[in-house]
Design goal:
With 421 residues, this protein is of the alpha/beta class. The protein folds into 2 domains: 122 residues, 3-Layer(aba) Sandwich (Rossmann fold); 266 residues, TIM Barrel, CATH 3.20.20. It is built from 17 helices and 18 strands. The strands form 3 sheets. It has an 8-stranded mixed β-barrel with strand order 9-10-12-13-14-15-16-17, surrounded by 6 helices. Strands 3, 4, 5, 6, 7 and 8 form a 6-stranded parallel β-sheet that branches. A two-stranded antiparallel ribbon has the order 1-2. Strand 16, helix 16 and strand 17 form a beta-alpha-beta unit. Helix 8 runs parallel beside helix 10. The chain is globular and about 65 Å long.
């Protein structure tokens, strides 16, 4: 399960998107201190003690800046970090820092430039507060000063501080809600809504698997409640392939699902990178998942380097076009051509095409015209509670509101991040 859950930025009650930075440093003490300095300036951070799963988390979080430590005596982790960012086509900025000679740091910055990363000027350790503040200001990071509690994922799970919001998925031709995607929501009794990154950073694999199990159970129960109310929506959850080998998915689903053959089931969203690197593991799990009522969607399509071969090996219910190609598809000829090609590819292999991150009517209309089946994004609705989702769907059915029109905003304290396994 990924250590992070966000494609979209964390939001405040006013809807502003706040910046997120990753910090990668094998020196745990310095890692914590550096991250604390960023947070004191109102920048959300996620900490990594190595770069082993950096690319996977970048795909799910989409950070503004990735700070990477360079260790002069063992530069391997820094090298792996740079090439992981290249592999996932990271479009943000990369800040190298380290306790080594400036020329050595600069040589690695040149490597980053050579592989098309946006490299910032290097920094030497220890990095003082003035330099950190200068980065925040010059890179125009959106900040929100928060005094976070000392809260781990384990404590959040044990204290029932985690719930889930759902962002509607719309049939673009019928203009009706047909599904929803789960997002993690953390509320502290004293501090209110917290950025999920605050509890996910440094979480153990066991706790992350526990979060995935809770996400699945919640999605099935919510789906069952809506199904019994006459609203058959298919709920999706972003999940890590390796998590599927550690959780009793079929048992979780059977425990809460409606005993009705018409129940639409669940969708597990797996990133394009995971599909490419975990093909055999995913293929082995697919028969059991199908029997449990789960289909697989390829998420973030357009970020990786998928080949036609992968579509012959695995059957996907949906191909989810990444927001990086969806947004501005009517103003960027390149994005528009890419979307059309991806939609046609999905259909040629028997999958539905779904566009993620739609924010303008023009993009939605163009995507529908190109044959894109589904869409989701702020144009239609932000992540919302189960009750708000039901109200939105029922209002559309009675004709008081179109499901494809911008919906009423969710509860003003909502701050959600994509639920992942």
């Amino acid at each position: 399960m990924s250590n992070a859950l966000a494609q979209s930025r964390l939001e405040s009650s006013a809807g502003a998107r706040h910046s997120l930075c990753f910090v990668v440093d094998t020196d745990f003490g310095y890692l914590q201190g550096f991250s604390k300095s960023l947070r004191s300036l109102g920048v959300n951070t996620v900490e990594f003690v190595n770069s082993a799963r950096l690319g996977e988390n970048v795909e799910n979080h989409n950070p503004d800046i990735v700070f990477v430590n360079l260790n002069a005596t063992d530069p391997y982790d820094c090298t792996r970090a740079l090439f992981s960012l290249k592999e996932c086509k990271f479009a943000g900025r990369v800040q190298l820092f380290g306790r080594c000679e400036p020329a050595f740091l600069e040589s690695f910055r040149k490597i980053g430039n050579d592989i098309s990363l946006a490299m910032l000027p290097v920094l030497q350790k220890p990095v003082d507060m003035t330099a950190i503040r200068k980065i925040v200001q010059e890179q125009k990071l959106n900040t929100e000063v928060v005094s976070p509690p000392d809260l781990s994922l384990k404590k959040a799970l044990a204290g029932n501080l985690i719930s889930f919001l759902y962002q509607p998925q719309v049939d673009l031709s019928k203009k009706m809600v047909i599904g929803a995607e789960a997002f993690v929501h953390v509320r502290h009794p004293q501090h209110g809504v917290l950025p999920p990154e605050r509890v996910l950073g440094g979480a153990s694999e066991e706790d992350l698997n526990g979060l995935a199990a809770q996400a699945i159970a919640s999605a099935v129960k919510t789906s069952a409640a809506l199904f019994n109310a006459g609203v058959p929506l298919k709920f999706s959850i972003n999940i890590n392939v390796e998590t599927l080998t550690k959780l009793p998915v079929a048992i979780l689903i059977e425990k809460y699902r409606p005993q009705d053959d018409q129940w639409p089931g669940l969708v597990f969203d797996v990133t394009e990178t995971q599909v490419l690197t975990k093909t055999a593991l995913l293929r082995a799990r697919m028969p059991g998942l199908r029997q449990a009522g789960v289909s697989i969607a390829m998420d973030n399509f357009g970020r990786g380097n998928s080949s036609f071969g992968i579509f012959k090996e695995l059957a996907f219910s949906e191909i989810k076009l990444d927001r990086s190609v969806v947004q501005g598809c009517t103003t960027s000829k390149g994005n528009g051509n890419t979307c059309r090609t991806m939609i046609e590819l999905a259909h040629n292999f028997g999958s539905k095409a779904s566009a993620v991150g739609i924010e303008t009517r023009e993009d939605a209309q163009a995507l529908a015209g190109w044959g894109c089946d589904y869409g989701q994004g702020y144009l239609f609705a932000k992540p919302m509670t189960e009750q708000e989702l039901l109200a939105m769907v029922m209002a559309a059915r009675t004709g008081s509101k179109s499901a494809a029109a911008p919906a009423a905003p969710p509860s003003k304290d909502a701050a959600a991040v994509k639920a992942a396994g």
